[in-house]
Amino acid sequence: MAHINNPMEIYRLTDGSNCRACNEKTCMAFAVAVFKGKKSLDQCPRIPADSLAEYGEALETPDTIDEFMEEAVQALTHKIPEIDLKEAAARTGGSFDGSRLTVRIMGKAFSVDTRGNLSADIHINAWVAMPFLNYVLFAKGVAVSGRWITFRELHGGPERLNHFRQNCEKPLKRVADSYTELFSDMLEIFNGSREKTHIDADISVVLHPLPLLPVMFCYWESEEGMDSSMHIFFDQSADQNLDAESIYTLIAGMVKMFEKIAERNSSEHT
Ligand code: SF4
Question: How far is Cα 82 from Cα 74, in angstroms, rounded to an integer?
Fold first, then answer.
């Protein structure tokens, strides 16, 4: 029988639709509830029978998503002393001052020292720290190609596509629908740039969550009975410099941040 030792693995067994048939608000909440022993896997009708047979009895220590993420960050920081940070800085588009590697995350400095200690100009949370550390440790240093592809086209993208749509594109579309300054704020606060491409969106903005990982957010406004839409594109080199799970985590973290900015904006104007 397969082994499960964190809630993310349970989450991946769901289809990410947040359909609520399990009486939880989201698939993520369901995954945590199962992991804590409050629900059983078979309470999600959308988990295939073969996964239930494979994982049904395999749960281990109770935990939470945030604690799991913290543990993952700890495990990655322990690998940092094993690598040459000067070489890593050259490979990742960062800089090295003799003891710390620094890269810019949407224009803000984010650093790790030779012992694995993190420091940053922005609040450090695990949703950013985990992709950052994976990037420093494993990026191949492949140059940005200028050719845009979808998340599905990334290596490892198809397996995570539902979750990407549910937790990245859909909530970001909701933010853009109600918070018209979103794209101007992206440009100003996060060093974004407008992009003109063959993708014929009403608004296209490129941000650099990591130096070799440009991300393009494209928004089509609603018109003539057609709903608005939001799609997120990546450079063709993206999966050479960061794995699809980390890309998904990073974008989901960014979307949470945009949601908070939008909430703050709306409370300031009410
Ligand atoms: S865990 Fe399953 S039942 Fe619950 S919301 Fe997700 S897909 Fe629906």
Answer: 14
